[in-house]
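Continuing from the previous page of notes. For each protein in this section, the sequence appears first, followed by its structure tokens. Read the first protein now.
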Amino acid sequence: MTSALVIGAHPDDEVLGAGATIARLASEGVDVHVAIVTDGCSTQYPGQPELIAEKKVAAKRALEILGGKTIHFGDLPDMKLDTLPLVEVNAFLERVVATIRPEIVFTHNATDLNRDHRIVHEASLVACRAFAGSSIREMMAYDVLGVTNFAGVSSAFLPDVFYACEAFLARKIAALHAYSVEVRAFPHPRSPEAIEAQGRVYGVLSGTSWAEAFTTIRSVR
């Protein structure tokens, strides 16, 4: 059985970046797992520690909607990964990779505006580095609308892999709504309308009706 791992810095990144792809792969018999590195709340929502538990519940519900298998929480401090030794981030992801032994890995883009995203990208490269006997055959980066292409950042996100998955758009939107605290009204990038529009553009670029896009980090054929 093929297995895949989707790595996110914060709860909801996995849905925003690869939610429909998770659902498509799951429908094709792939065991899809998710690793969330930070608690997603401690800095963004100070004084509301109850949100950490609520976001874990939301993440589990989102993965259930998408048809995924297991979710792993690193519980590292949100928006403060740059204050930690990188080995702490590496260690969490290395444990998850060793447990799951995925063949496909999705992670953040290297040049996202959000520093947590960039650090998680780097830690993913360490945890998924190539070595004899590695299970990983494909490693790709996803974009997060409003983070990968925002505020004049040179994103260097040039997609070369497209997953056509309009049939799973509704599930992606439903999974996003599991994170009710994060959903915003259009034209915010975390609105359902913006997510659908982003996928339409990637669909046009790939000759399909709706798609999610990724850049190749490593591919072993």
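Done with the first. The second protein uses the same format. Note its length before scrolling.
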Amino acid sequence: MLIAVKSSRPTPAPTLTHVIASQGRGSVTAVTSLADDVFVMRCYSQQVEVYDAETLTLQRHIAVHGLGQSYGLAACPSNNCLYVSQYSQDNIHRVELSGSNAVKKWSVARYPAGLSVNIAHNLVVACYEANKLQEYTTHGSLVREIYLQSGVTCPWHAIQLSTGDYVVSQYTPGVVSVVGVDGQVIHSYGQSQTSDVGQMKNPTSLDVTKNDDILVANEGNNRILSINRSTGCVQELALSVDGGIQEPRGLCLDESRGRLYVGEWGGQHRVLVFDGVNSVTP
């Protein structure tokens, strides 16, 4: 079922409070946070940048040798581990954040892109070419596979909602869908919307609020969208940035701080930090 876009009053705009410059380190592919740390992954880098969430200064790098092309990053509070996807080599790297930063690696289905941690504290991998989601334990044991309904292609990122369903971004043809654990589509947003704001080109990273509302990094349209799950309303967030947001691919909502991180694939390859994010959905 396709949800129509409804008009609504604009929400108060978050404020850009900090910019993490690329300093020649390349395009941002993923951003996530855990406790007082913010993690940034860049394309073809073998290091994850770690920033202090209070000062937003670079604290250290975490080496992940042999990583290469990576588009997914997720942090799990239950085991204090960071997960990184190796897109071109079909692997996941698990990095222990305490102690020696020991790394474990395991194989997954074709072209793992976005990563998330679900309600059960398991890792969810969106497998771009295999058109399925894979769920793994924190130690890399396969729990289950969700084969997506025919026509649901190129999944980039998937996050579990409180209902147990998953919201999935489809890089091509440009749709965000809510699917059940059987892989069947429950709702879709994007391709067939009648309003320009609801149409998407190359949606990538997602995040979900505590109310199950959805944030979308709409890379091809240089904007961040919010979707109200109760009303079906799709709205562009009013994020004021000099030169505009350029091909956003990384996205992370820290509701405890009222903060949104946006990582740019294009332009200056910045990480944009917006505070005052008290209500980001229409």
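What the second structure shows: The CA atoms of residues 64 and 107 lie 15 Å apart. The domain at 15-275 is CATH 2.120.10.30 (Neuraminidase). We return to this in next week's lecture.
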